[in-house]
Amino acid sequence: MRTENETRAADGNETGAAAGTAPAAAPVRFDTKITVLLRDDLETWQRLNVTAFLVSGLGTVAPEVIGEPYEDADGTGYLPMFRQPVLVLEGSKETLTAANARAVSRGLPTALFTSDLFGTGNDRDNRAAVRAVHRDGLDLVGLAVHGPRNAVDKVFKGAHMHP
Length: 163
Description:
single chain, alpha+beta, five-stranded mixed β-sheet, 6 helices, 7 strands, about 35% helix
């Protein structure tokens, strides 16, 4: 016969924590995925800069990816962040071009960063630089995509984990 703790653990209501201790939270599996793909020939500062820019737009089109604000034990408030992990991959220029085509064809929310944006200094010029080039001619250095797990996995086929 099972104890009450064993029964709750088997039912998924508790993970088998000892009596009198807080139960460990079960792992959360998200239905969606946030993934960033960076071109494999970028300098370190470029990788960081591109990643920051790319993920900044996702919460505006998919507000459900943003969690609750944080607060420390002193009551100091902090900004909310993504509620789920962000996977960062890398790949060749060709991998980025193929991933962009797959993301667009699936209608997934996509952010992009082109090499031209390293030479601009503001949002207006960034948008003009992207608008000046046809999709197939974009010199992509980064993409960020949010969507259903399987669809996002298919978009980034051929990419590998960032080192």
